Amino acid sequence: MKNLKFNLAMAIFAAGSLLAMGSSPALAMSHGGNTCGTDKTIEIAEMTWPSAAALARIHAIILGQGLGCNVEIIAGDTVPTSASMLSKGTPAIAPELWTGTIQDAWTKGLDDGTVMAAGLAISDGAVEGWWIPDYVATANPDLKAVSDLPQYASLFPDPEDPSKGRFYSCPPGWGCEIANAALFDAYNLKDTYNLFSPGSGGNLDASIARAFVREEPIVFYYWGPTALMGKYNMVKLDMPANEPEAWACNVDPDCGPNKPMAFPTPPVVVGIASWLKADAPNVVDYLSKVSLTNVEISQMLSWGDENKADAQETAENFIKTREDLWTQWVGPEAADRIRASMM
């Protein structure tokens, strides 16, 4: 019953969220032959963090210009995108889906045959955790674990409530928002810290970067691969080993009590609605090949960060400069069409 309630709540939330977000106009089909396999519009979810946004744009270019698919980018985030995919079969593609905080619902969808993992988005896996800057770790050698944080609350004062420390949590709407709140509760930090929502991934990045540039103390949730993680030296705070069953309870709002533990390290997948395999097997074959390493994604994001590029510009630069990677995902004729579209 708990899982049913959770899945129903996610579906309702997704319907409202996707209507509120809207979508961008459909991207043009390729100028060459159509090897897509379907005339249906293939919606691709563009999540709000940089790597997922850039990957969505890369796939839109390759599927649209290379395979001749009708593609459309729509706004998304982990919880609403997965809920909509599970309940309605749309969007068709979630290029970087972190399934750890939606594990029960995602597993049920796999079992029911409504969704699939076309492949890995990040070939060598991703990382999530709570972090402090290296200079904070060096100056405070006894601060090694999340359980040590209550003793150091004064080191991370909340500007709006200096009587407590501030922990920078996950942006709202992301799957990790539920997990961070659960861990904050599990470690009983409410008496010594305020759980601060940054409002967006961009705000979280800006807060972290500002602290590093000024060499100020900060404790925060973060993940990789990201350009920011490649730019600054972060030290991960220790947590007890992850326990899958207890973690499933942590991320279920109807379950409890919450238990302190590390984030799981599930594969970050290319999530798809199952109808895509039946209607467009060429697309699924392509998506099964698109895995990138942490280093490759970080390099892509670093270029975007250094050049103040948006997701589309970052994707186009990847297409122009990393033929060694993406030409392994498509045939030579599709590759020629993609090159031509960049001229």
What does the model show?
It contains 15 helices and eleven strands. The chain has 343 residues and is an alpha/beta fold. The strands form three sheets. Strands 5, 6, 7, 8, 9 and 10 form a six-stranded mixed beta sheet that branches. Strands 3-11-4 form a three-stranded antiparallel beta sheet, sandwiched between helices. The longest helix has 20 residues, at 2-21. The protein is globular and about 60 Å long. The termini are far apart. The model is unreliable at 1-32 (pLDDT under 50).
Features:
single chain, 343 residues, alpha/beta, D-Maltodextrin-Binding Protein, domain 2, six-stranded mixed beta sheet, three-stranded antiparallel beta sheet
Would you kindly provide a brief summary of this structure?
Helix content is 44%, strand content 17%.
Which structural category fits the helices and strands? alpha/beta
Mean pLDDT: 89
Global morphology: globular
Proportion of residues in β-strands:
15-25%
Low-pLDDT parts are: 1-32
Q: Helices, strands, pairings?
A:
Layout: H1 2-21, E1 42-46, H2 50-66, E2 71-75, H3 78-88, E3 93-98, H4 103-112, E4 115-120, E5 127-133, H5 134-139, E6 157-158, E7 161-168, H6 176-186, E8 193-196, H7 201-214, E9 219-224, H8 227-231, E10 234-236, H9 244-250, E11 268-273, H10 275-279, H11 281-287, H12 294-306, H13 311-321, H14 323-326, H15 332-341
Parallel strand pairs: 1-2, 7-8, 7-9
Antiparallel strand pairs: 3-11, 4-11, 5-9, 5-10, 6-7
Helix pairs in contact: 1-3, 2-13, 2-15, 12-13
